[in-house]
Amino acid sequence: xxxxxxxxxxxxxxxxxxxxxxxxxxxxxxxxxxxxxxxxxxxxxxxxxxxxxxxxxxxxxxxxxxxxxxxxxxxxxxxxxxxxxxxxxxxxxxxxxxxxxxxxxxx
Length: 107
Prior knowledge:
This protein is mostly helical. About 60% of the residues lie in helices and about 5% in strands.
């Protein structure tokens, strides 16, 4: 005879130990299928989908970081290009607005 096949409700499980260095819990995946092979295939597809999702998140974070860097560069360029007269006008306007803001507070 051949090797015994797993029961109908066999499960394929991956449960990484330890988690990250900050003491968080690990991530666990579990799938159920009519055979071990079906459960394993489902688990692999789940892990691939999770990896694709993580890559999409990484890509979005990278784009956000590049956008923030461009914004910082634009602010820096604007700060360097302003004249002393423009700075005085802006500071006076900020003081005027803040004075109006403080006087509008309820007592």
